Each structure stands twice: as structure tokens, then as C-alpha cells.
Known about the structure:
By secondary structure, this protein is of the alpha+beta class. 20% of the residues lie in helices and 34% in strands.
Amino acid sequence: xxxxxxxxxxxxxxxxxxxxxxxxxxxxxxxxxxxxxxxxxxxxxxxxxxxxxxxxxxxxxxxxxxxxxxxxxxxxxxxxxxxxxxxxxxxxxxxxxxxxxxxxxxxxxxxxxxxxxxxxxxxxxxxxxxxxxxxxxxxxxxxxxxx
Length: 147
């Protein structure tokens, strides 16, 4: 119920929360929880995201959501969450986030600084253990939206 809007279809932002839960859960499962990254002054802030709503999800639809890597670069990576309807296996939603690996610090004024760094081996190896899939790509509007 919490993931649908007044029209009783999926609220557009819900898949982003699913992706975040899957990514942070995966990091914890491979023994690199986000809290540990932060203690070490490192992390993987998101630099971009996209969602693709293939078909409407309704209030009573049951889904399974899985996380896959979409790209592995020198200092960056992307992951995609794929939500499939359980009764027929149809992909309903894909959401992708692109991340940079960074060290956190502070400058002389106390402002937070980020410095891109090569992906650590544990992250690169963990991502490479799965097959890459295509990221979500938003479909452009057929006509411009005028406000």
C-alpha cells in the first residue's frame, strides 16, 4: 500500500527506495556495510539515476526485485534493480543508479570534500561476479510538457 499513489498504481519514487535497500543490503552481505565505509571515510555517492516503467504495477501485484551490475569502470559503477511480476515473470520496472567511489574529507573551512578513487578490489570483484545487464533508460516524452 505504501508504494502506490492515489490511482492505486506504483508511486514513481518507490523503485528508487527498493534499489537503495538492495544495494546497501548487498554491501552488508559481502561484509562492507555502508556504516563501515563511512567510518573509513569512503563511499559511493550516486551521481545519476534513471527509471524505466515498463508497465503499470497495481496495488495487489506481487513482485520480486533483484539487483544486477550494469557497468564497472575505474572509479565508477552502476547497478540496476529489476522488478518482475511474480505470476508471469514480466519485467515491470527497472531503476539504475550510477555511483562514483570516493574518499570523504573536509577542507579548511569544514566543507565536505569528495575525491574520486579507483574502485576497491572487494567492490570490483563483487560486481564482476554477476553478469552485467542494460541499465534503465528513460523514455523521452512524445511532446514537451508545458507548465
